[in-house]
Amino acid sequence: MKYLKELVLFVSFIGVSVVGFTQTPAEFEANYAKRIKLEEINGVYIPFDLEDAFAELNRLSDPKGIARFKSAHEDSIAQSHFGLQQWVQFNWGFDEGSRLSHYMKSKGISVPDDMSRIIVLTYHRKLNGQPLMLEQEVALISQRMAEEKAKRDAQKKTVVIEKRPHKE
């Protein structure tokens, strides 16, 4: 049964992603503007900031699961895209916009994968009584994105179009 729920979630996730690509940019923006004001999307409560997200994760989670999560090493938390990070990204509407994704964008985090990773990572730090270090995480993301852009720019090729007279 557990695997069935995960499969249904995965298939649903793929379906939502494919549907999202059929929207025009104007339709996406209009939908986004509506979604970021909603307290609930598809029957799921959407937190409004990090502290509210932490409270909601506490509310939804089993105490034993929280204890296991808390005792996990931070590196494994930050590197694991599947599981909780994927749940957060999908259920809290990061791909199509939600009030929490909008909040994360206001903090300088615009990629849904980064949003979910930062929420899960800072939740782990909160549970362990550590500083959240959100600003440092945002700086690391900005640095990574700048490096990726520089790499793409370095690989660009200049295309020259020559016009030659047509021979008759």
How many strands in all? 2
The helix count comes to 9
Beta-strand content estimate:
under 5%
List low-pLDDT spans. 1-20
Report Rg: 20 Å
Tell me about the largest β-sheet: 2 strands, antiparallel
In short:
The protein has helices spanning 2-20, 25-35, 50-60, 63-71, 74-79, 84-91, 99-106, 112-127, 134-155, and strands spanning 40-41, 44-45. It has 168 residues and is an all-alpha fold.
Architecture overview:
- The chain contains nine helices and two strands.
- By secondary structure, the chain is mostly helical.
- Residues 1-20 have low confidence and may be disordered.
- Helices cover 65% and strands 2% of the residues.
- It has one domain (2-145).
- A hairpin with a 2-residue loop joins strand 1 and strand 2.
- The chain has helices spanning 2-20, 25-35, 50-60, 63-71, 74-79, 84-91, 99-106, 112-127, 134-155; strands at residues 40-41, 44-45.
- The protein has a two-stranded antiparallel ribbon.
- Helix 3 packs across helix 8 and helix 6 packs across helix 8 (112-127).
